[in-house]
Amino acid sequence: MSASHAAFIITGDPIVGTGVAELNEDITFNVTGDGNVALLVFDEWVIGDGTRDFSTATPALNYVVNGGTVTATTFLSLYDNTQFNFGAVTANDGYFRLSDIAVTTGNTVVIKAGTWNLSATLGFNPTAVGTFQGNVFLADANGVRLSDTQQVAKVPEPSATLLLLVGTSLFFRRRR
Q1: Measuring CA to CA, which residue among 55, 34, 6 is closest to residue 104?
Q2: pLDDT band at residue 46, thresholds of 50, 70 and 90?
Q3: How many CB atoms sit inside 10 A of residue 52's CB?
Q4: In the chain, what is the greatest distance between 2 CA atoms, to the nearest angstrom?
Q5: pTM for this one?
Q6: Are the C-beta atoms of 72 and 64 separated by less than 8 Å?
Q7: Is residue 82 a contact partner of residue 145, using CB atoms and an 8 Å limit?
Q8: pLDDT of 141 above 80
């Protein structure tokens, strides 16, 4: 498992159509199986609420395979969780449903950073709003894992970063 500095954040309210999803940095995956990537899975994102609701996300999600050209998905929806387990996807996992991306073992897939507007979705799981911190992976439409696992990290609070910088500068200033 590799660590990424990326964060996946949902703000606003997807229930009324003011939701916004953001991936603040690219995430690179190493493909471990042949198939068609159809899901970007957020492992154990929420406590499943027993329903599977989705929000159409716009604009398209961009990706790159093996350092080639940037390509846009033709279909993109954000699912809050699923009703059942299928393959490596569990009821507590959220995911982006993508148009199929053909891959073979050894490929590299980069999911490009972006911001997406979420359509109004009555019943969208409210625990999905906020910053996701955990594992992400690529899977096919049957939930078969096709990539290694990447870990997205929580974005540090600006105040914590500022305090660290101020404290460090005072430490070095005092030592002079």
Answers
A1: 34
A2: confident
A3: 16
A4: 62
A5: 0.83
A6: no
A7: no
A8: yes
Phi and psi based region of residue 50 (left: phi greater than 0; alpha: psi -120 to 50; beta: remaining): left
Residue 106 has a CB neighbour count (10 Å cut-off) of 10
8 Å CB contact between 27 and 151? no
What is the span of the domain harbouring residue 37? 2-175
83-127: pLDDT as tens digits: 788 999 998 999 999 999 999 999 999 999 999 999 999 889 888
Task: Give residue for tokens 């911190």.
Answer: 133
Q: Which helix (H) or strand (E) holds 172?
A: helix 158-175
Phi, psi of 156 (to 5 degrees): -65, 145
Tokens of 166: 């101020």
What the block records as the tokens of 27 is: 């995430």
**How much is the pLDDT for 146?**
97
pLDDT confidence bin for 75, thresholds 50/70/90: confident
157 or 15: which leads in pLDDT: 15
Number of domains in the chain: 1
